[in-house]
Each structure stands twice: as C-alpha cells, then as structure tokens.
Design brief:
With about 350 residues, the chain is α/β, with parallel strands linked by helices. The chain folds into 3 domains: about 70 residues, DNA Methylphosphotriester Repair Domain (3-Layer(aba) Sandwich), CATH 3.40.10; about 100 residues, Orthogonal Bundle (Arc Repressor Mutant, subunit A), CATH 1.10.10.60; about 180 residues, Orthogonal Bundle (Arc Repressor Mutant, subunit A). Helix content is about 45%, strand content about 10%. The strands form 3 sheets. Strands 3-1-2-4 form a 4-stranded mixed beta sheet. The chain has a 4-stranded mixed beta sheet with strand order 7-6-5-8, with helices on both faces. Strand 5 and strand 6 form a beta hairpin. The protein is globular and about 65 Å long.
Length: about 350
C-alpha cells in the first residue's frame, strides 16, 4: 500500500459520492458480486456490509475479486501504457488461455519489460494475473464435486502437475488428496471482508481462516497431519453453524459465536485463546493485559506468539488485541481487516451503551 487507508466509513462515503481524491489510491471489493471497482464507478452502489476496501489492485485480485467491466480499474491503472493496455485487452478476450512468455513475445514485447510494467502498475506480473484468473475457475469446479481433471481443464491448465502445484500453494494440499469420505471437510464461506475457508468434522470447527492468509497452507498441512481420516469438500453442521453466525455478525444481529471449537495448540495457547473469547465485542486488550489476566505477567511475548498461532479467525477474536500504545499490530488476515472488525464491534458496543 502506498498510503494508509482511512476509515472504511470514509471510503464508503467516497464511493457513494464518487470522490476523485481516492482515484488510484483505494478500491472497493463487493462480496455479493465478487467484483472490485474504482471508488468513482458509476454502477449502482453496494450495501456497506458488502464492501471491503483495498489500497492496491493486487490486493483485490489476491482476495479473489474480478475487475469491474464498467469502470475498468485495470485499464484505468494502465493509463495509455503501450505495453500494458494491449495485454489486458487480450487477457479479457481469452481469460482461460494459458498465457506464456512466448505469447508476450508474439505481441512484440520483451518479457522483462512486461514484467516490470505490470509489477509497477499492479504489484504482480502479467503471467501471475492470468494464472490467478484461471485458478479461481478451477476452485469453483472442485467445490462442485467435479474430478480434478475437470477442474484442471476449466482452469485452463494444460499440465495436471502445474494445476496441482498452483492449488497446493494456496491451500497447502494437492487437489487429488481430497477424499469423498474424509472425516474433516473444507468449504468456503463468503463474508463482506473476504472469503474464508472452514474445516470441520461432524462435531467441531477445526479451522477458519481468510483464504489469502499466507499461513493457511501450513495450517492445513499441520491439521491434516494431526487428524486421521483425510480432508474432503463439504459443509458439516459446525461449518453451517459458523456460516450463519458470521452472517449475523456482519449484518449487526449479534457478536456471539457458539459453534463448538477444536483448539489445536499447547495448554498455554489454549488458555490464551479462551481468554480472547472472554473479551466483549467492542473492547480491546493489550498483550501485557492478557498476560496479566492469565497470571503470567512476564509472558507478554508468549501471549503475542499464541495470538499469532490462532487458526480460528473472528470466532477466537485475536483482532481485539492491540499494542500497549493502542495502535493496530500484526494480524494474519491483514491490518485493514483488523481495523474493519474493530469498527464493526464498536457499533455493537455503542448500541449496548445507548
């Protein structure tokens, strides 16, 4: 990000008024459509609870959003760049094509020049942008229960190994490793601040993370290694319950989560996570306060590490922990999400006080 994003309420007002001061500096992803736009987009405005704001186009794409065909944020960012614009138009025309450097050369461009131009404009290369667009189609096919080969073809990957590698980098598990009769089952939950992956057995929720969290692949691998029975696609009762509770949470109907949880960690880590669950919505704590509440006043750093190891985002509210000065500190889902969650919960608190 080139500058710190202001409060999401300010950005939403800028979206409503099509304020040009944020042109090229902030973008909105709309969870109900899966599309991201410039704040000056002339399209019908989404509801606030369906909006999430980003500072760069690459963050929008990483979070799974597609560029709006009306306000064309990719083309706006490209300007009149004679290298970027024709390649964007070609990608729009053939999104499922497996683009290679040879295709770039066929357009008459030097691959290294194209890499630099796209990194400068979007924070990712042209080939990375094309691959992410194709991979998203493959995920949708796998979730629908289709075989891996169908997902590979839908995603436009000619090589099965390339598709497996790309899938594994994001999830941490090869697509062919998923089993129909697995004890643990994974599913995607859409939220106003980005898609989440939930993994549950028939009785407990084991993992809930934003799909763009970098630690997700490692977390999935550790979970599968510790739990026999493999992993499949599906929505057991705990996933259905937490999806409903998240929907209520983001629409202002309640901040209490009662989904049964499986806490995978040391005794100390589990103590920290349970302490986090006792912090009321709309309140925050510092790491040192948590350590003191646990009777371990000198364990501030250990508390911070346990906080970072939490793999049940939102329901175990590690976002409610700030630095001693009250500033936002590291959050695996991104500081912009932490800020948004605190804003949501402040409204719960304000309602209670009034």
């Amino acid at each position: 990000m080139m500058f710190d994003l202001p409060d999401s309420q300010i950005l939403y007002q800028a979206l409503l008024t099509r304020d040009v001061q944020f042109e090229g500096r902030a973008y909105v992803g709309v969870s109900s459509t899966g599309i991201f736009c410039r704040l000056t987009c002339p399209a019908r405005k989404p509801k606030y609870e369906n909006c999430q704001f980003f500072g760069t186009i690459s963050e929008c794409i990483d979070a799974g959003f597609r560029a709006c065909k009306r306000c064309k944020p990719l083309h706006q960012a490209a300007g009149d760049d004679p290298v970027v614009r024709p390649l964007l138009e070609a990608l729009d025309a053939e999104p499922s094509h497996r683009w290679r450097e040879a295709d770039v050369v066929a357009f008459g461009f030097d691959p290294s020049t194209v890499r630099r131009a796209f990194k400068r404009q979007f924070g990712m290369t042209f080939l990375e942008m094309a691959r992410q667009r194709r991979l998203r189609e493959g995920f949708t096919t796998l979730k629908a229960g289709e075989p891996v080969i169908a997902a590979q073809i839908e995603a436009g990957f000619e090589s099965a190994s390339a598709f497996r590698a790309a899938f594994t980098r994001l999830i941490g598990l090869a697509p062919g490793s998923f089993s129909q009769n697995a004890l643990l089952q994974a599913d995607w939950i859409e939220t106003p601040i980005g898609a989440m992956v939930a993994i549950s057995c028939p009785h407990q929720l084991h993992l809930l993370e934003f799909v763009d969290r970098r630690a997700l692949p490692g977390e999935v691998k550790r979970l599968i290694a510790s739990q026999p029975g493999g992993l499949g696609f599906g929505r057991p009762p705990p996933t259905r319950q937490v999806a409903a509770e998240l929907a209520r949470y983001f629409t202002g109907q309640g901040a209490h989560f009662q989904t049964p949880l499986a806490l995978h960690g040391t005794t100390f880590e589990q103590d920290v996570w349970r302490m986090l669950q006792r912090i009321p919505a709309g309140e925050t704590r510092s790491y040192s306060q948590l350590a003191s509440d646990l009777g371990r006043a000198t364990a501030t750093r250990a508390v911070a590490r346990a906080n970072g190891c939490n793999q049940l985002a939102v329901v175990v509210p590690c976002h409610r922990v700030l630095s001693a000065s009250g500033d936002l500190t590291g959050y695996g889902g991104g500081l912009w999400r932490k800020q948004r969650l605190i804003e949501i919960e402040n409204r719960y608190r304000e309602r209670e006080l009034s």
